[in-house]
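Researcher: I'm preparing a figure for a lab meeting and need a structural model of a single chain. I don't have an experimental structure, so a prediction will have to do for now. The sequence is pasted below. Please return the structure as tokens so I can convert it later.
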Amino acid sequence: MLNNTFDRSLLNFPRFVYRISGMRDGVKKAVKIKVNGTECYDVSLSMELGRLVLDKRLPELNDVKKLYVIFEVFYAQSISVSVTIGKTRVPLRK
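Model: Understood. Here is the structure written out token by token.
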């Protein structure tokens, strides 16, 4: 059983901005992404080697072909994406 899965914060970024732009067919294209209040948690820090066990006898797992183990989780207070094509700017917010 996992204990204190999210008790250790590895990274805390108050603000992150990513920009990329270029020209294609004579038209300027750019993307700007702003992420605020980011936190990253690593689940593997609270788990001992060999403690994760999969019970293959569970009937729910009979047809399962793939299993994904999530070991990092990221949270953000806000994210905004701005796309520019030519001279037009289109803000996208979440």
